[in-house]
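User: Structure please.
Assistant: Input sequence and predicted structure:
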Amino acid sequence: MVYNIIVNAARTGEKQIKLAESVFESAGRKYRTFRTDHKGHATEIAEQISSAGEECAVVVMGGDGTLHEVINGIRDFEKCSLGLIPSGTGNDFAEAAHIPADIKKAAQIIAFRAPVNIDYIELENGLKSINAVGMGIDVDVLKRAYEKGGGKGKYLSSLIYCLKHFKSYNFTVEYDGKSEKHYGLIAALGNGRQIGGGIKICPDAKIDDGYMDLLMVDYVSRFKIIFAFLKLMLGKINSIKEVTAVRVKRAKFTTEKPCSIQAEGEIYDGMQLDAHIVEKGLKFFLPRNSDTVRD
C-alpha cells in the first residue's frame, strides 16, 4: 500500500515535511508527497489518487481546511484510509481524534498502526464534513476573521465582535421526528468537539458514536452575552437555558432567506444545512488507547 502525503505547502515547512517522510522511510513504507499550490488543490489530488481503484492511504499534512478538501476529494472510502499530521492554523479535528501536534508522533501513528472506522457528516448535496458544519454567527465570525487575515487570535476577536453585533434570525429544524421553530444565534452539527482553534461548541461529541451533536443557541440578551461567552470558552455552553443540545442521526434546517454555512471553516453561500451521519464510514488512523474509539 502506498502512503500519499498531501501537504498544505503554504502552512508547512520543508523541515516538517522531511521529518514526516523520515518516519515512513524508517517504517519501510512506500510513500509519495504532493504539495498543494492553490485552493482546492488537495481535493484534486485526493480525487486523482482515490480514482485509481487501488488500496491506499491518504495522509493530510495540514489543518482542518486541508482535511476538509481531502475528504471531499476521496472517491472510494472502502479502499482509502485517511491519516492526519496536524500542521495548520486550525487543528480542531486533531483534538477530537487525540492526534498529537508533534509531527513525528503523528506520522508514527499512521506508519505503524492500522486504521479504525469513524463517522463523518454528509449533506444531502454530497458535501462531507469530518469535524463540524453550521450556520449563523459562526459563519459571520469566519468571514470577519478571514478579512482580518485569519488565525486563532483573529477568530477570537471576531467572535467577541459578532457576539455584540450579530442579529438572530428565524429557522425551523427537523430532527428525530420533531419540527421546532427557533430564533437563534447559531445552529451547528458536530462530529468533532470544537471549531475556531479551540472553541468547544460541541464539548461532548465523539467521532465514532454514530451520532452528530446538534447545538442550537437561541437569542441571548446583551446582558447575558458575556456570561454565555465564558461558558463557551470553558466548554460548558450546554448548561445555558437558551441552548438546545441533542444527539441526532439527521437534521434539516430551513431558513426564511438563503444563508451561508461553514464546514471545517470553509464557507458555502446559499447552501441548505440538511445533513446526516455516516456511521463508521471512514477508515482513519488513530492513536493507541484513544478514548475516542468504542470497543
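The two ends are 26 Å apart (CA to CA).
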